Fold each of these.
Amino acid sequence: NAGVMQNPRHLVRRRGQEARLRCSPMKGHSHVYWYRQLPEEGLKFMVYLQKENIIDESGMPKERFSAEFPKEGPSILRIQQVVRGDSAAYFCASSPSLPAGAYNEQFFGPGTRLTVL
Amino acid sequence: GESVGLHLPTLSVQEGDNSIINCAYSNSASDYFIWYKQESGKGPQFIIDIRSNMDKRQGQRVTVLLNKTVKHLSLQIAATQPGDSAVYFCAEIGGTSYGKLTFGQGTILTVHP
């Protein structure tokens, strides 16, 4: 079984450009999570999505960042008008459906390393 | 705000020794605590988890201990191997949201042959 896939693995953008990060969850997983990791720091939660729904976006910056998980295709994390402070590793994780009040292991992808020049 | 943090940022051990990595948490509402291993250039890899109603859980070469009285979590790795060298993160989940992992800062474990 293929794990969580992310592309591109490395992305270089100039200030003001747009960055699009893609995440394909593991087969059979309907929940996707995005995290950001700054150098020498832990991962910070950004957003939790199910197919066509945003469940929790409490970690998303108010401006320039958006995420989607369409009915068909990968989840996309979009960063508009990137700034140098957006340089980080962005990780996607996926999990199967969650029964109410339950926790399921999140499986992480290899990450996309974004560098803003 | 609530957070999960670590006492020691780095740990160096000799191959074959046992390693203990510690973590302090502040959210008493967390239902699960999880340890992840992250190797350079890779995503976090699940090691072991423990539910909040347990004190101890064992896996292959790893043991997680939970002390709710002092809000402390530890990961014990037996017979540490060079392949165990990585950054180890504790994380917590639960309470009102089962979709949001809150990670600690991380401990760098270096195993010397």
Note: Residues 89 and 113 of chain A are 4 Å apart (CA to CA).
Amino acid sequence: GQQVMQIPQYQHVQEGEDFTTYCNSSTTLSNIQWYKQRPGGHPVFLIQLVKSGEVKKQKRLTFQFGEAKKNSSLHITATQTTDVGTYFCAGGRNSGGYQKVTFGIGTKLQVIP
Amino acid sequence: EAQVTQNPRYLITVTGKKLTVTCSQNMNHEYMSWYRQDPGLGLRQIYYSMNVEVTDKGDVPEGYKVSRKEKRNFPLILESPSPNQTSLYFCASGHSGRAGGTQYFGPGTRLLVL
């Protein structure tokens, strides 16, 4: 079945440093979504990428979708303590007219003030 | 307010005692799904539903049942809970189809099976 690998599993950074998490799928994806889960909270949708090579930005967050639509990355510039949480990618692929989504294991980000 | 609600939020039970976790959404979403979240394993899909009366197994369906009799509700049933089903459970909903599948998650249900 489809697998979505995500690394690293944990990351500690000093406030102000950059952070990147990577996702890699074993199969070509229709789209990829990114979610953020704050400690004690539930996953919250951040963004969806659909096109090959797509790059989207949300303030300090930059999301990329690979040319082959099998990998993606989330980069945070100049981390802040509010960025603390676990970031999940979720790869979507069409299956019988509907979309099947597989989540990566998540990257837990800790920001040291 | 658009939301996904789950009940109960916390539950302690004993092995073998049937339980149901309810999930309801008010966004008229076709797609609903159940996940369990365990340390080091991320979010794993249990069951999902593309529409009323249409359900399918996810990656870890053993020990669980679901039903989708109405569009807004998608209960998760544990007929005979076991300790390995102790976990944090999330219900999610979204629009299915080729355009993409953004999912909106409920607040979670923390289950402890003794």
Note: The radius of gyration of chain A is 14 Å.
